[in-house]
From TrEMBL:
It comes from the Bacteria. Keywords: Endonuclease, Hydrolase, Nuclease. GO terms for molecular function: endonuclease activity. This is Endonuclease.
Amino acid sequence: MYKRIRKQFSGTAKAGETPRSTCSGFEHVPEFEPHRHIRLLTFNIQVGINTSSYRHYLTRSWQHILPHRNRIQTLDRIAHLIGNYDVVALQECDGGSLRSGYINQVQYLAEAAGIPYWYQQLNRNLGQIAQHSNGLLSRFRPLDVTEHKLPGLIPGRGAIIARYGSEDDPLVLVLMHLSLSKAAQQRQLGYIRELIADYQHVVLMGDMNNHAEELLTQTPLKETDLIPLPESAHSFPSWRPEKALDHILVSPSLEIRRSEVVSYPVSDHLPIAMDVALPKGYLETF
């Protein structure tokens, strides 16, 4: 499949049916192994546009609409990185439109990285022009995966929730891309807060377009006990990181073995990585 998709890009792509949210299915996806630590990564890939300067927002803006041959090389570089992780949250993916050569970028990255399960959430459907999407890639079979449209004045933001492990006490991963507006973030995080209220082992990961201090003190997340990365974990812009907009926030029940901003500037955001382990008491239930 990976080779076939690459060949698609070298010729003139033909428009097919309008893509929708889709996934790989669970066939050949290994069961969750709770005794292992889990390597997490969140990455805003900017639909495969290689941005390394503010001027590129102008000079390469056409790549948000039209295909570009170097985009596939950028995706291959991203796939090389994400192949080192167990669960990956992707933001600003294209689900298969003109600009991506009608390639579902979530599927492409999963297959190029050798990750068996993928889920693409279509959040803003602009037909053949763009298929704005989030993505989940996983080496483990989740209990279930659900998608949620986040509230906001302008529609088009979403979250994916994947549950792993025990049905009675699961590990819950919430993958999201929040709006730029602070008012919209309040509504969106209030919605997320309700979704995670009954769970003990929670991970929130994604592009949250805000700093952790404000997220955890000035939004509905202040009602949680989530643990952030250090304030110095700047991920934007990738060529001169000054803002911490991308996050992995975890419940105190989860042991953080390692966390870092990955120096891998192929998008306008840098990826964030974290290695977590479940508590021993939780593992004994398996």
